Amino acid sequence: MTRIEQARILVVGATGALGTLIAERLADRGARLALHGRDATRLADHPAGGAAIAMDLTDVDAPEAIVERAIDALGGLDAIVVAAGVVGFDGVAETARQDLETMFTVNALTPMRIISVASPSLRASAAEGNEPVVLTISGIVSELPTAGLASYSASKAALAAYVAAAGRELRRSGIRLVDARPGHTETGLAEHPLFGTAPRFPHGHDAAAVADRLVRAIEDGTTSLPPEAFAGA
Fold first, then answer.
1. Closest C-alpha among 37, 77, 75, 41 to residue 53
2. Contact, 112 vs 84, CB < 8 A?
3. Please, which residues have CB within 8 angstroms of residue 158's CB and are 6 or more apart in sequence?
4. DSSP line for 4-23
């Protein structure tokens, strides 16, 4: 079981709807937080408080800089939550004209690099007797690729595959990686796509309920959160 009270936790994407809810719940449980977001003003006013790290995830040195600043602020890392992401809607005919580089950078490449860069600090946490954890959110599309969401599904599947393999490798060092794959969640992300227009989705999961389940997974030692783990959310 991971103790959240006084745990040093980096939340990537803390100014998004889901990231904000997660950060608030972690703060309520006594975590020490470093909060990443793109907008410095929103970070300064963040309800969870914590050290602010304003940076665009597409910046070439963002993963290293975010982790370094979090470690400087907190004195180390015991957990990372990656709640950042972008969505795009395109059919096969449109994919070649879309901004796939940004999508894959934000959804897959930057989280991968953050995990890699942070691994020495997480190993140090494990050596101190803690139970370090990294939580990512690939969503249901990572295992059920969706028509009209081909490139988005691919970016999330890449993240899920990396976390599955890295989790097997890092558990030898006492680091737990858990990927969450909830279905469509009412965060408002679909209303602000990187490209394309969102189709009509059925009503999705309640974001607050999803945040509760994610924080509970950090605490209870969960190693996987498939879509069915969010039934009733």
1. 37
2. no
3. 104, 107, 108
4. -TT-EEEEETTTSHHHHHHH
Q: Residue 166: beta bridge partners?
A: none
Closest of 127, 11, 27 to residue 80, by C-alpha: 11
Residue 203 burial (CB < 10 Å; 0-12/13-18/19+)? Answer: exposed
Encode pLDDT of 111-130 as tens digits: 999 999 999 999 999 999 99
**Cα-based torsion angle of the residue sequence 51, 57, 60, 63 in order, rounded to the nearest 10 degrees:** 50
SS3 at position 129: coil
pLDDT digits (tens, 9 = 90+) for 127-172: 999 999 999 999 999 999 999 999 999 999 999 999 999 999 999 9
**4: DSSP letter:** -
User: Distance between CA atoms of 75 and 77, rounded to whole angstroms?
Assistant: 7
Here the tokens at position 102 are 């940004």
Rounded distance between C-alpha atoms, residue 124 and residue 103, angstroms: 32
Show the tokens assigned to 226.
Answer: 């498939």
- DSSP annotation of 194 reads S
With CA atoms as reference, report the closest residue to 182 among 228, 136, 148: 228
- Residue 165 burial (CB < 10 Å; 0-12/13-18/19+)? exposed
Task: Take residue 48 and report the two structure tokens written for it.
Answer: 């969870």
